[in-house]
Amino acid sequence: MTTSCEQIQQKLPEYWAGIISVNEHRAVDTHLAACQACRNESAELGRLWANLDRVPVEAPGPAVRTRFYDMLDAYRSGADEKAPAAAPSWWSRWFGQPLPVFAGALAMLAVGFFAARSFYSPPVVKPETSEIAQLRGEVNSIREMLQQQSASERLKGVTFASRADKSDRDVVFALLDTVKSDPNVNVRLAAVDAFKRFGTDHAARRQLLEAIKLQESPMVQIAIIELLVDLNDQSAVKALNAMTQDDKLQKAVQERARWAVTELH
Amino acid sequence: MMYRPWLLLAIAATGIVAAAQERLIAFSDEARPRIVRVELLDGSLSIRGYEGKDVKVTSAALEKDRVQVTEANNTVSISGMNRGPMVVQVPNQTSLVVRCVNCREAVVESVSGDLDINLLNGAIRLMNVSGSILAHSLNKSISAVITRLDPDKPSSFTSMNGTIDCTFPADLKADVKLRTENGKIHTDFDLQLEGGLPVRTDRGISGRIGGGGPELQMRAFNGSIYLRKK
Fold first, then answer.
1. Using a CB-CB distance cutoff of 8 angstroms, which residues of chain A are in contact with residue B97?
2. What residues of B are in contact with residue A187 (Cβ under 8 Å)?
3. What burial class does residue B171 get, using C-beta atoms within 10 Å of its C-beta: 0-12 exposed, 13-18 middle, 19+ buried?
4. Can you tell me the distance from the alpha carbon of A194 to that of A166, in angstroms, rounded to the nearest whole number?
5. How far is CA A101 from CA A85, A95, A104, B24, in A?
6. A15 falls in which pLDDT band (50, 70, 90)?
7. B125, B131, B134, B136 alpha-carbon torsion, rounded to 10°
């Protein structure tokens, strides 16, 4: 039991990062369902993940970028003009010195930094509250719904998932599981649709591409191909190109892959 | 003209055999929800709701033991190679799971429940059904007359190479998604987005009917879609 717990806990970071195979994902799920200690560990890590997702990425606004290029252009045209050999002005004398140039650069950097901050107001990072616990509860119920015996209930689970918090990786991977292994075509198709919201997740998108090969339904295969086009996933082009030649796929699927390649180019 | 006596004899013989080809099977718990699961390789299937408590299966394949009928956990399972026609009578309120690879057709009539019907190469015809309906035919069409949608559960009709033709009562309330790649979408319902126009993309249209309700998806690839008002 302890070795198993150790193994599971070693896998948890990958589990939450979403770079784990479906089988392993399922194995972890099964273990978590039975083991309170690992469940706590996982929940802790999950909270960390959720909070990481909420930390805003500091990025300069578009105006800063434009200004930078304006400055660069100004500098370039200035250099091209080839200043006449006349006596250097106070300006060039002053700025020809390394120390003032360095100080100027520093000042510019500071201005740029504060300008970026003023253009980009980061969302407030909320401390962890019962809200997250509630979200966890919702996610668990979505997972449960996706494992119901009745296809109608599972389809309802997909509908719920399509309205879930976008950053919730647990929902993303529950949906992926459904796309890969739900026995009902209608449910799988709906799961592909629901996936659209989570399209920014690169790891998930790669798994979606993998899922095409696991499908026996050409309709679901086509739906995934169309979704990759809708998400403008350039990284899928290579795999899609291979699909146009893959004789194991139906002709309609090959054709759709060909269409997708031209759409993405 | 001289064939006539043979013909009569043949009809009489069919009647006798038919009587022996019927099987009656009860659910173990009448109070709990009922499920009938039909998994056939071929033949044609007709499921009819009736005001009884048991499941009645009629098929020539029963006698030759090509089809098995069992009950466990309030689920009646019918499976095997059918070849010819099969009629299954079920209580009106029954959930269905139907899988049929090479059936020519599956007809479901007057049944209410979670209906999950999936055919590979046959057409699906639903008449006066209600509940949450998930119907899929890969290569043939789906036609359905639905009396009421389950307000708490979604419904979905999908076909790759067939037409999807559904008729609903005029007071339908649903959040609708209609989509086809190589066909047309027809409806005489008013589709609305809350306070605006429905959302139209190059492949489909989605919106609300009757102020919205459960999700109703109709999705084809090489066929047209009809969403009709009764």
1. 151
2. 134, 156
3. exposed
4. 11
5. 22, 6, 5, 96
6. confident
7. 0
If you average pLDDT over every residue of chain A, what do you get? 76
Residue A138 has pLDDT above 80, yes or no: no
State the first-to-last Cα distance of chain B, in angstroms, to the nearest integer: 48
Distance from CA of B206 to the nearest CA of A (A): 13
pLDDT for A28 equals 83
Contact B97 A187 (CB under 8 A): no
Assess A263–B contact: CB distance below 8 Å, yes or no.
no
Residue type, B160: M
Classify domain A130-264 at the CATH class level. mainly alpha
Structure tokens, A62? 């578009």
- Select from A184, A190, A219 the Cβ nearest to the Cβ of B138: A219
Say if residue B94's pLDDT is above 80.
Answer: yes
Is the CB of residue B118 less than 8 Å away from at least one CB of chain A?
A: yes
Instruction: With 0.95 as the threshold, say if the pTM is over it.
Output: no
In Å, how far are A6, A191, A256, A264 from A249, measured between CA atoms?
41, 21, 11, 20
Q: Helices H, strands E: what count in chain B?
A: 2, 20
B40 in helix, strand or coil? strand
Q: Number of A to B CB contacts under 8 A, please give it.
A: 68
Partner A contacted by B152 (CB < 8 A): yes
B94 touches chain A (CB under 8 A): no
Please list every residue in chain A whose beta carbon sits closer than 8 Å to the beta carbon of residue B138.
Answer: 185, 217-219
Q: What is the pLDDT of residue A85?
A: 45
DSSP E strand boundaries for B95-192: 95-100, 105-109, 112-119, 123-137, 142-149, 155-159, 164-168, 174-179, 185-187
Lowest-pLDDT range, A46-50, B15-19, B23-27?
B15-19
Of B177, B217, B221, the CB nearest to A219: B221
- Residue A183 parent element (H or E): none
Cα distance between residue B160 and residue B184, in whole Å:
14
Cβ contact (<8 Å) for B138 and A152? no
In this complex, is the C-beta atom of B179 within 8 Å of any C-beta atom belonging to chain A?
Answer: no
| Averaged pLDDT of chain B | 90
The rounded percent of chain A whose pLDDT value lies above 90 is 25
Boundaries of every domain in chain A: 2-54, 62-119, 130-264
Give the nearest partner residue to B221 out of A186, A187, A222, using CB atoms.
A222
Cα A52 to Cα A156: distance, rounded to the nearest angstrom: 30
Contact call for residues B171 and B157 (beta carbons, < 8 A): no
* Cα of B19 to nearest chain A Cα, Å: 34
